[in-house]
Structures are given as structure tokens and as C-alpha cells.
Specification:
With about 160 residues, the chain is α+β, with helices and mostly antiparallel strands. It has one domain. A five-stranded antiparallel sheet has the order 1-2-5-4-3. The longest helix is centred in the first third of the chain and has 23 residues. The chain is elongated and about 80 Å long.
């Protein structure tokens, strides 16, 4: 009787442990499926790079997103230079220093993140930058519908901050 209870208890613990393991197991995407810009920064110790597959923008649009977060001033300086994020205005710099966030959004040709473009082509990425948090989010769009959804998502996020 005692042996049967121990076996039952062990089976229950195994079931609960397996369920917790499945829920807590990190979900990773193979490196080959990640964006080129993610692969460029993933080994940089000054930048925390993340790749999010099928990030839900709204009820009908999901896109891949590369998130680059500066860990230190070297990382931020690298992102500012590589992505051409320089802020010229001294009052804007003062606002950021006082805790106000400046979120900028620009449309770029895929793979060319330093120059914004004005095109209706679907072959673009949308780059959103939080200057206060020192983060760059690159939304990888495939078509015009996704591009518009990403712009609206970032506008709404900026307004509601």
C-alpha cells in the first residue's frame, strides 16, 4: 500500500514537473531563421539583441521584429552611428535627460538602416527608436498592409506612453 502511494506521488510529480518544464522552456528560433541585423549584433557584448518571430501587431498582422538594446554607452554609441540616430536639438537632449522619451520611427530599405526612405514599396523595414530606453526595434515588413499596421502600432504606442 505504501509503495503504491509513493509510485502515485512520483508519477504526479513527474507530470507536474514535465508541464512546468514545457511552460518554462525558452522558445528560441534557429539562427538561420533570424534577421541579418540580429546576427550582426548578437555577439556584441554592449548590445542585447533579441529576435521575435511573428510578433502580433494587431488582430490580423504579425511580423518578425529585431530588438536591439544598448547595455552601456558603447552600445548606444554603436547604434546611434550604425542607425544614424543622432539628435541635434539641445532641448530634445534635455527632455530625454529629464525622463521624457523621444520615440522616432523611420522607414528604411531592408538592410540599410542608416538612411530613411520615402517609398511605397513593400521591401522596407520600419525602425522605431526609444531614445530614453536606448532601444531600437526593427519591424520586418513584407507588404503594404504590414507596413501600415506597424506605423499605426508605433504611433499608438508613442501616444499612450
Amino acid at each position: 500500500m505504501k509503495k503504491q502511494r509513493i509510485i502515485t506521488l512520483l508519477v504526479c510529480l513527474l507530470i507536474v514537473g514535465s508541464g512546468a518544464g514545457v511552460l518554462l522552456w525558452p522558445r528560441t528560433v534557429p539562427l538561420a531563421q533570424c534577421s541579418e541585423v540580429y546576427r550582426l549584433y548578437v555577439n556584441n557584448p554592449s548590445i542585447k539583441a533579441s529576435f521575435i518571430k511573428d510578433f502580433r501587431i494587431n488582430d490580423s498582422v504579425s511580423v518578425d521584429v529585431t530588438l536591439l538594446e544598448a547595455v552601456d554607452s558603447n552600445g548606444w554609441n554603436t547604434l546611434v552611428t550604425d542607425m544614424n540616430l543622432g539628435i541635434q536639438d539641445s532641448s530634445t537632449r534635455s527632455d530625454i535627460a529629464n525622463g521624457m522619451d523621444l520615440i522616432t520611427v523611420k522607414q528604411v530599405k531592408k538592410g540599410v538602416y542608416s538612411k530613411p526612405i520615402a517609398t511605397s514599396s513593400g521591401n522596407v523595414d520600419i525602425v522605431a527608436t526609444s531614445h530614453l530606453r536606448k532601444e531600437v526595434s526593427i519591424f520586418h515588413s513584407k507588404d503594404r498592409k504590414e507596413k501600415h499596421a506597424i506605423w499605426f502600432y508605433n504611433l499608438e504606442k508613442s501616444i499612450n506612453q
